[in-house]
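seq as requested:
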Amino acid sequence: MAVADLNGDGKLDLATGNGVAETITILLNQGGGNFAPAVGYPFGGGWPLLIAGDLNGDGRPDLVADDAEGIKVLLNHGDGSFAPARRYPFYGYLALGDLNGDGAPDLLTSGVSALINGGDGKFVANASYPGGGPLALADFNGDGRLDFASAGGYDDEPGTVWVQLNTPGLCNVQEVAGLTPAAAKRVLGSVNCKVGKVTHAHTNRAKKGRVANYSPKFGAVLPGGGKVNLVVSLGPRPKR
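C-alpha cells:
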C-alpha cells in the first residue's frame, strides 16, 4: 500500500493492490476520513508491492508496483488517474532514490537491480548486485551519495546482509554466463570493467560460442578498468 496526495488537493490518498480483482486500486480522500469509490487499474495478479514518488519531475506522485508480470510504472495525470503501466522485466522488493546524483529518483529492485531514471519516468537497467530481500537506501559512509543494503537471497547464508557503497568508477562484475563474448564485453563495459583473458574449452555448461564461466564472479568489486576473464564454450567434448 502507498499513501500520497495523488490528486493535488492536499489530502492523503491511498493506492493498494487487489489480488482478487487483479487491479491496483486508487481511493481518493474526500476529507474527514471518507474516500471516493475505488478506481481500479488492471494488473498482473498477486498482491503487488507499491511505492509512490515523483518519477518524471512534474510534482505529482507516480506509482511503482511489483506483480507477477514484473515491475510496472504508472505515471500520474495529476488528478489521481494514471497512464497505462509501463512494464520492466524485474521483480521483488522496491526502493526509490537518486543513485547517480542527477535529481531524478532511480529504482532498485531486489535481485538486486539498479534501474536509472532518464528524468521522464522511463528507466534503463544499469547493473545488478548481490542480494534478494528487502532493501534500504541511505548514505552509510557520509559521502553525500545514496548507498543501499539488501537482505540476502535464497543462495546466501541465513542472516546475510549485503551493503553496497555507491562509489562511481568502480568495476562491479556482472553476470555474463550464457552471453556471447561480444555481449559480455558490452555488459562489463557498461559498469567500468574490461574483458581480460579469453580461453576456450569443451563444456556442457553453455552453448558453443557462449560464455561458460568467468572470473572474478558476479558481485566482485574491482578498481575501474578491472579485468574479467572469460571461458567460452566449444560445445560438448567430441565422443571418441
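The first strand starts at residue 2 and ends at 4.
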